[in-house]
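Hey, I'm writing a tutorial for new members on how sequence and structure tokens pair up, and I'd like a real worked example in the thread rather than a made-up one. If someone can provide the structure for the chain below, I'll link this post from the tutorial.
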Amino acid sequence: MIGLRGKRVGHAIALLMVGVLSAHAAPTILQVEIEHSGMGKSDSEFVLAHTRVKEGQDLKSSAVSRDVKILLGTGQFSSVEATVDEMADGVALTYTVEAKPRLASIPEIFGVSEFRASKVCKWLALAEGDLVDDQAVGVAVRNVLKEYRKDSFGDATAVWEFAPVDSEAGFVNLTITFTEGPVSYIGDITVQGNASISTGELRKALTRPSRLNPIRWFVRKRYEHYELGDIETDVRDFYRNRGFLDVAVSVALGKAEASKYEIATVVVDEGAQYQLDLIELKGVTVFPEPELERLISLKPGQTASLSAINATARRLQAYYGDRGYLRAACRPALTPHLEKAVVDVVFTIREGELVNVRNIIIRGNTRTRDKVIRRELQVYPGDVYNQSRVQRSERRINNLGFFETARAIPQETENADERDLVFDVTEKRTGQFMVGIGFSSVDNLIGFAELSQGNFDLLNWPSFTGGGQKLRLRAQAGSTRRDYELSLTEPWFLNRRLSLGFDVYRRERDYSDYDIKRTGASVTVGKALPGANRITFRYNIEKSVITDVSDTNTYYELDTYDFDTDTGTSYQFESEEDRVKSSLSATLTHDTRNNPFVPSRGNKLSLSYSVSGGPLGFDTDLYEVGLRTTSYLPLWFGHVINFRTRFDFIETFGNTDEVPLTDRLFLGGGRTLRGFDYRDVGPKVIREYGTDYRSRSLGGQSLFMANLEYTIPIVSSIRFAAFYDMGNVWTDSYDIDFKDLASSTGIGIRLDMPGFPIRIDRAWVVETDDNYTEEDHWVIWIGYDY
């Protein structure tokens, strides 16, 4: 490999400094100088801004070492060295920095045939102007080799070379040459020597699919060579966590005569299974020993599980870390007695020193305001250093979605019992503009454009970024619908964890029987509650208009219709219905899902209540109640069962005699009951039409729906699904008959493309709610299930 020097820390505070320190306990720094090496340009002011050692201070090797680490941590330099020269009354400190060069153009790729060069460049993620050195390129190349290994090119390698373009400006060209090698993978894996633990119990450690996994019935699992190291480690850990502390594991490769591919054999020498005997705690002076002993759940006679022992050590260390002891550590020492098959465990604690947080420094945020980061922190100046709260603060900052990385760094101060806590962040792009065309079985062809900014600031002209607000502007239009929406959300209203949102929208929908136009605006206030709960209040005002009614003849409700006399309860679709609905709703949500877009475990439950009209005024007096639940149960190898239920009820009061057509409940199609025509399940009206009858959906006031779906991952971002749907809509409020349900079953494909997920389903109707419900077997839908 030919390239630039790798990253190194040169603490050249060597013999000369040792001599100085021997003569003087703390020599004074008379001058601090910056020298530059290499061909790249660097800024002396930038270096000085990131160092804390100043002229006039006493020289401390720990402080200089800290500055070197900080400078390397900026990512701007390939190497940083600190040297000390003796002067008459003190010393001179010199930082020698070698700036990383920048790419003059995108890397030039050679030797690639399995993938397109453009795809390799995308995986490298190295663009013109990026800072590079051997370490940075090595990380980028490993990303590409990882993709090669996924395609069974386990022997793929790469070398790279830098060529200077402008040494003074620090620009280089980068050439990367790949050697792909042959396709090579392992077709089977076996175990030898596992007398105490069956191969079935080792299945997960071996990454072998379950016998119940349908994929195994059709496709043999392929193992890549790079997986063998992980398998060896996982099998060893599996044994050690069951008390086999002396286990030895190795992997041998071979090729059977009748086998087309290589076979890996995991060879296990189990050794003895140990039990716990003596359990001791040493080094405790600060806290009462019985208080820490309560954290030890291990008991003599139990199986000596290495994972349980390490978990206990982590709890003991965290106990100190959460009480301000920054450098606390706990090391478990194991003394096995082979003749008795028992092991003694001694937890030795190094208590460290108690420190407080002096200042909290935010570093690296060029666009995001400090307060946006500070309000997520769980630790404050003056607090005793609490490791758990610091880690939670890191997670909360990362979860904002504004930063590539966010990490907390405790920095020493002149006071031994104080630390400055630095949160070092690296910002990323938070704005997005998307344009596309989609298709669904309900909406047909759709074109859309969306502009969003996840770190918006309404008052920060002209960039309008950095305030942590969420802005979304979306327009979509198709053959049957036109939607326009503008939304703005402030997640910290009044500097509290209280979200405030504004929405303005216009939605036009063309149905086969009539068209509906809705224009509205809403204000939403939300508050997070303990235990993954949230309560949301929403005021909405909406004007709805029904136009272009295709048939204004008199119909009769199907439930009351007499086919012999052509009589029943009459209904007539009205044209130009013009209503204004003013409503206030409250929703309580409990959400423990592990992912809001493609969950694999957890539950979500929401209960809502809404009142329209009455004291809120305008034309429509209604109240609505809704309950929705969804549960995700992970099985094996990414298989997931998802079960959903939905209950909705709506009822009139006051001056409204019947629920308007625009507010009624409908089922069928897309995201409700697949296999049925859109909105066609539930109450209908009917009239005689020549020698036949014509029906139209009327909607109802009570709704129940349940979906059961089983998904299996096929390859990355593609899942197979099998489902069963059932439900119905009833005319009256709170009138649900579980014996009267429409149902369907089917299979589908889930394409989990970020920002543009697609669902394709083929459904078969099992039972209809009546003889006039139309079927629609294919469902194509774009979007996530929330």
